[in-house]
């Protein structure tokens, strides 16, 4: 009986410290935020900064998708530069919704090259969620 108990303890410890379990603990935490308002970028960057501190080495990617009528504001390069600088500082990727750009007549050449354009921001957000990204829409 004593041997059975000791064997069970050894097996339990082996399972707890297995490489598969360690891999789950070291998994990167990725985030995506879909927003329709440029002023929300400031609190989004603060959130990215806090999550990076909390997650430490497990902090992965942080992407912000800008959709809706607010994409018109992306053409104001002077106003957008402060957000672009902050995004670079926080290692946040800025993404523009191509569908919104088309719908509201914004030429892709008129927005800063720091923005990556995806064809459909909502679809892209859902695809990232399928990959395990934590997502919120504002």
Automatic annotation (TrEMBL):
Keyword Signal carried by entry: yes
Signal peptide, first to last residue: 1-22
Entries under Gene3D superfamilies matching the protein: DsrEFH-like (3.40.1260.10)
InterPro entries assigned: DsrEFH-like
Keywords of this entry: Signal
Name of the molecule in the record: Sulfur reduction protein DsrE
Organism: Salegentibacter salinarum
